[in-house]
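WARN retry 2 of 3 for item q-0093 after timeout on previous attempt; input resubmitted unchanged.
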Amino acid sequence: MTSQIVDVAVIGLGSAGEALATALAEQGLHVVGFEPDRVGGECPFTACMPSKSLLHDATSGSSWDDARRHRDEVIAHLDDGSHADALQEAGVTLIRSRAGLVDEGVVESDGRRWRARHVVLATGSAPVVPPIDGLDDIPWMTSDELMVADELPESLLVLGGGAIGCEAATIMAGFDRHATVVEAGALLGGGVDAAVADRLAVQLRDAGIEVCTDAEVTAVSETAGGLRATLSTGATIEAAAMLVATGQAPRWSGLGLEHVGIDDDPAVDDKYRVEGRDWLRAIGDVNGRSPWTHGANHEARRLARLLTDAPPGPPTEHMAHCVFTAPPVAAIGLTAEAADDEGLDVVVGTARYSDVARYATDDLEDGVVVVVADRTTGALLGCSGTGARFDDVIGIVAALLHCGCTVQDAAELVLPFPTIGQVLTPAFRDAADAIG
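OK item q-0093 returned
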């Protein structure tokens, strides 16, 4: 079988693959991209964009019919035509079928082969399905299905209290549906400090959402009205439907890694090389390094520079992430617990939204911010918080971390009055005072 010769073959054209393929083709490289589903991936069609559209309407009093129409416009009625057209206009050869490796630098798809100087895997991630007795006997859904549903269930059992689970529950509550979140761990939110997770639980309960932490679903069975779940605590929950949101796993299988001597759980370094191979790279969710759209796009920009011998800049050590509940949660860097686990001498600074003037002028709900720093060096290690527009405020901390600021430097930052961002100042000062 003959092979077409190309510069770069990109397998998977979600956020990371689409951005990379476009950037390389615009620089004159011969790029072929493979995508059996939608160009653009999950984010614009079944994940980030529909969920944010629904969250906005759920918390602003829109009817479900109006929210559904708005969502369908946002996701272009699940038509990826504009993404595909833009990719091809940039010069990318688009192949709408699955692809896999058959030899070093050789990709096969639908009976054809391409030989590439570089192969990039950008196949994303897939939901982790927990081993629950009876799960195979009941209908259940993933967030991708919920976010594009024509109708919401009257009640929803949400497995997992991370970003996806908390956002799904918030959508349900906003449209007067009942939701119960079951989280196996002690904390909601994923990667936030305990005080922030506790505040998030209060926010969800205030919205009418039931929250069960330190609990797992051990068995499920079908009922006339939907399903019944038994928890590890002995409690039972009945709901019309169940959402599985217990995490994501990289999509390595089916890529032909075995044909080049690589296992299905390979290591990826900070230059995105798979098991040290210069010709094979992996970006986006599949490499597990930064599982967010902004992380995928950053990796695509950096890899485009690496593959064209341009200075790539350092990898981003800290990546902010958000939970778009009402109000939102955001975090970056290490929590106090994670820093302590790394053996660091940690100081913590805290502040509340009620500490700043905007709390009173805007009649806001109270919120909490936690700042983590190294006692020995003063290095700013991380921050998490929840409160009005904290998803935007976290960008200030991202800039400080990127510039290597100490918490003492951060405590001297002058933020305009009266803005919500000022909630960071008492937290920074609290941590700086603890260092002395």
